């Protein structure tokens, strides 16, 4: 489905993990456009992370005295990744000229024993696009809960990034956090640094203030996160894209006492606004 309003063009792919296929403003690609016939959310412009973000070590965790095992859902990677919603079909719950709502429900199977309902609400407005992701506990017991958005931005030699955080987490070879380091360890992001590089960055920045700026050849835009204390930066070596992900918790937080807990019927929210 497509929305066109206020010089924005937004393409949504509900059946493919509730992903964004493309987001343009005045003809400029704000998000990396998905190829035609896309069958993998990892090739989309953005997808939701629900009911947890990033990794859970070996897919195993304990909660309320019970042990749980999630499917290992990312090829031969040793950990479960990105939650359940990105590999599920979403439905169109509402639509209008400048807004749409996608919904995803989980019945309590697939290693995550709590039923829940998730929604994405997309809104186009003059000079900004906002997506709000929500997660409601539909089970009758408390549920651990995490949220995030995984946007892919185009990257070339003229792309710059700026943001402020308290620290960055170094990671082991499987990208689980090991120890913290100064936030400028991989780039002087507060001073506005070029994104392109030849080494992998796949690290979580804790104590993020919720603001980021992305400079592109055509001008650029600002990103604002709500309900996200962590910014996860993913920059593959010499790639033509990078990811700046607003998330509610660190990788493997469920095993490190870092997850929110939702009472039955309670809702957790996270939002991302892109302003040109």
Describe this protein's structure.
By secondary structure, the chain is an all-beta fold. It has one domain: Beta-galactosidase, Chain A, domain 5 (Distorted Sandwich). Helix content is 0%, strand content 50%. It contains no helices and 26 strands. The chain has strands at 2-5, 8-13, 19-25, 28-29, 46-49, 55-56, 60-63, 66-69, 80-81, 91-96, 99-106, 116-125, 128-137, 143-145, 148-154, 160-163, 167-171, 177-181, 193-194, 201-206, 211-215, 221-226, 230-235, 241-247, 260-262, 267-275. The strands form 6 sheets. The chain has a 9-stranded antiparallel beta sheet, with no helix packed on it. Strand 12 (116-125) and strand 13 (128-137) form a beta hairpin. The radius of gyration is 18 Å and the shape is globular. The two termini are 23 Å apart. The relative contact order is 0.18.
What structural class results from the helix and strand content?
mainly beta
Counted up, domains total 1
Span of the ends, CA to CA: 23 Å
CATH class: Mainly Beta
Widest sheet: strand ordering: 10-11-12-13-26-22-21-16-19
Topology:
Elements: E1 2-5, E2 8-13, E3 19-25, E4 28-29, E5 46-49, E6 55-56, E7 60-63, E8 66-69, E9 80-81, E10 91-96, E11 99-106, E12 116-125, E13 128-137, E14 143-145, E15 148-154, E16 160-163, E17 167-171, E18 177-181, E19 193-194, E20 201-206, E21 211-215, E22 221-226, E23 230-235, E24 241-247, E25 260-262, E26 267-275
Antiparallel strand pairs: 1-2, 2-3, 3-4, 5-15, 6-9, 7-8, 10-11, 11-12, 12-13, 13-26, 14-25, 15-24, 16-19, 16-21, 17-18, 17-20, 20-23, 21-22, 22-26, 23-24
């Amino acid at each position: 489905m497509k929305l066109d309003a206020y010089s924005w063009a937004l393409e949504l792919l509900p059946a493919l993990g509730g992903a964004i296929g493309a987001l343009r403003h005045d003809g400029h690609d704000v998000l990396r456009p998905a190829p035609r016939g896309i069958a993998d959310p990892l090739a989309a412009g953005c997808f939701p992370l629900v009911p947890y973000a990033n990794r859970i070590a070996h897919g195993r965790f304990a909660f309320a005295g019970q042990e749980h095992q999630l499917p290992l859902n990312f090829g031969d990677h040793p950990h479960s990744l990105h939650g359940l919603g990105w590999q599920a079909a979403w439905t169109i719950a509402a639509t209008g000229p400048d807004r749409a709502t996608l919904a995803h429900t989980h019945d309590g199977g697939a290693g995550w024993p709590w039923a829940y309902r998730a929604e994405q609400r997309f809104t186009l407005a003059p000079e900004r696009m906002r997506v709000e992701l929500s997660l409601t506990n539909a089970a009758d017991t408390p549920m651990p809960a995490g949220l995030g958005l995984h946007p892919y931005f185009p990257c070339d030699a003229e792309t710059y990034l700026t943001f402020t955080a308290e620290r960055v987490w170094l990671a082991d070879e499987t990208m689980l956090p090991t120890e913290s380091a100064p936030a400028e360890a991989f780039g002087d992001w507060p001073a506005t640094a070029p994104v392109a590089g030849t080494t992998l960055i796949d690290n979580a920045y804790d104590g993020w203030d919720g603001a980021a700026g992305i400079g592109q050849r055509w001008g650029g835009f600002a990103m604002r996160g709500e309900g996200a204390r962590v910014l996860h930066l993913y920059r593959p070596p010499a790639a033509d894209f990078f990811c700046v992900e607003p998330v509610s918790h660190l990788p493997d937080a469920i095993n490190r006492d870092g997850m929110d807990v939702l009472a039955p019927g309670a809702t957790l929210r996270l939002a991302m606004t892109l302003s040109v």
